Amino acid sequence: MLDHLSYTPPAPKVIQGAREDWELVIGLEVHAQVSSNAKLFSGASTAFGSEPNNNVAFVDAAMPGMLPVINEFCVAQAVKTGLGIKAAINLTSAFDRKNYFYPDLPQGYQISQLYHPIVGEGEVIVDMGPGIARRVRIERIHLEQDAGKSIHDMDPNMSFVDLNRTGVALMEIVSRPDIRGPEEAAAYVAKLRQIMRYLGTCDGNMQNGNLRADVNVSVCRPGDYEKYQETQDFSHLGTRCEIKNMNSLRFIQQAIDYEARRQIAILEDGGTVTQETRLYDPDRGETRSMRSKEEAQDYRYFPDPDLLPLEIEQAWVDGIAADMPELPDEKKARFVKELGLSEYDAGVLTAELENAAYFEGVISVAEAARLHDAGKYSSAFDNKLAANWVINELFGRLNKEGLTVETSPVGAGQLGGIIDLIAKGDISGKIAKDLFEIVWTEGGDPAEIVDARGMKQVTDLGAIEAAVDEIIAANPAQVEKAKANPKLAGWFVGQVLKATGGKANPAAVNELVAKKLGL
Q1: What is the DSSP string of 30-80?
Q2: Are 217 and 261 in contact (CB under 8 A)?
Q3: What is an example of a Pfam family matching this protein (predicted)?
Q4: Which of 41, 142, 226, 363 could form a disulfide with 117 if both were Cys (CB 3.0 to 4.6 A apart)?
Q5: CA 11, 243, 144, 237 torsion-angle sign
Q6: pLDDT above 90 (res 370)
Q7: Terminal alpha carbon distance of the chain
């Protein structure tokens, strides 16, 4: 995690109203589906895409006499997520019944945690640029069961219910109102997603609804937020409205921007913003009212009589902590410090877990090859060269083809082999691009392809010098131009490379051309 003194918070987003300036205040409740093969209180499968009502146990269907049994693995996943955001882990927590009519939750209430959540206060550092980051405080993470899905477009007269998702474990991650703009909100959700994917506690698939956010938006006049921070008195902030079930980073930004301007228009017309739950319509680009916002007492929470308080031991938590993987901020810092990468390159390579693993595979394969050949060449392996190849050549091609590193035709070992050949001086950068294309389309071992097709770079200075002498002798007029303007020496370099089929060592060619022309 970044040191709190090493970054500057970004300025809040200021929106110009018709009469005055306004600032945004945003808090998010992110619902993350726990990565688990079974549901929170039953052994039913959580597999996505199953036939409707196929993954339903008796307890999920609220059959009489069926009692919930806590899934220990889901609890461990919540604890691991809490540790990942440096949060307090509560050794005692409890489940409550949230009484609210869900047409797709058969028991008529949701089992959740209101008063005693499994995870307490933590924080997430959201990078917004070099040296700029937002610290977002996490209030809590609690476990709860998901509802099912109502389907309204299969019949003009009836609605259908799919209970497959009913009872699936969710982690609700509740932030403080620390976010000050649409871009920050999207970056915060992306950072949470990144952390959980590294931890393996949520797959982050927003398209399938496995990660979605309720966005609380309000506006205030400049200076009022600072008063709130000093006093923690919410009266300094405007009335908030909650935008439900956002599963797109782009739509989150659009919805926040629209909702803020809607509230500003109401306030500047002398009206009052009503606290309510709203939905975002991406087709119209606007939010619309869903229902008045309920307060906690409206849900008539009470302890679930079927579930004892959840008590865990510190030793169990310590065991989970001991097995924690390297988190994205830590990996990024290591890439910068130990591998000598730039902040930008390290950020790109660690943005997705699979990309980071691929890059580490590239450098491990190439470094192993270099160590194996110790004494045969002195060039140290260049991590920056590997980063450039992964980011520019590989990622660029994958994006163009609509592929990912998991479906890449070029494996980490193959790309590492190409990097190793460059580092040894066996091939030039130009030949490497030709080799990459061959491996991409045909596969194969890069070293074997180079040997079989005669692609090795010419490093024999005698052969290169003969080619340079021949080009210079054949172009006396160009020689005089190059002597008058040394920049034109590049023409000779190009001709020599062309004459040698691109196999001549470019550095050696440049040096010899300059020497022969007296530059």
Answers
A1: EEEE---SB-SSS--B--TTPPTT-S--TTTTT-TT------HHHHHHHHH
A2: no
A3: GatB_Yqey
A4: 142
A5: positive
A6: no
A7: 52
45: number of Cβ within 10 Å: 16
The identity of residue 14, as a single letter, is: V
**pLDDT at 380 (0 to 100):** 44
Q: To the nearest 10°, the Cα dihedral for 189, 125, 352, 414?
A: 170
- What is the C-alpha separation between 448 and 456, in angstroms, rounded? 11
Label residue 435 exposed, middle or buried (CB < 10 Å: 0-12, 13-18, 19+): buried
d(CA 224, CA 177): 13
For 260, the token pair is 């803020």
Cα 224–chain centre separation? 32
CB 338 within 8 A of CB 346: no
User: Distance (Å, rounded) from C-alpha 334 to C-alpha 312?
Assistant: 33
What is the widest separation between alpha-carbon atoms in the chain?
Answer: 99
Say how far apart CA 201 and CA 76 lie, in whole Å: 9
Q: Which has the closest alpha carbon to 119: 30, 43, 37?
A: 30
Q: Which residue has the tokens 């006049």?
A: 221
List b or e across 328-349, with b for residues whose CB sees 16 or more CB atoms inside 10 angstroms: bbebbbebbeebebeeebbbbb
Residue 3 has pLDDT above 70, yes or no: no
Helix (H, G, I), strand (E, B) or coil at 104: coil
Cβ atoms of 45 and 287 within 8 Å: the answer is no
Contact 188, 179 (CB under 8 A): yes
Q: According to the model, what pLDDT value does residue 332 have? A: 95
CA 212/CA 252 separation, integer angstroms: 10
What is the rounded CA–CA span in Å between residue 415 and residue 395? Answer: 12
Number of helices (H), then strands (E), in the chain: 17, 16
- Nearest 10 degrees: CA dihedral of 86, 88, 90, 93? -80
Return the amino acid letter for 482. Answer: A
Q: Looking up tokens 């009519």, which residue turns up? A: 101
Beta-bridge mates of residue 22? 15
Q: Tens of pLDDT along 189-228?
A: 999 999 999 999 999 999 999 999 999 999 999 999 999 9
Q: Say how many C-beta atoms besides its own lie within 10 A of residue 457's C-beta.
A: 23
Residue 4 is predicted with a pLDDT of 44
Classify residue 501 as left (phi > 0), alpha (psi -120 to 50) or beta: left
In this prediction the pTM is 0.86
Of 80, 293, 38, 282, the closest CA to residue 169 belongs to 38
Does residue 218 contact residue 263 with C-beta atoms inside 8 Å?
yes
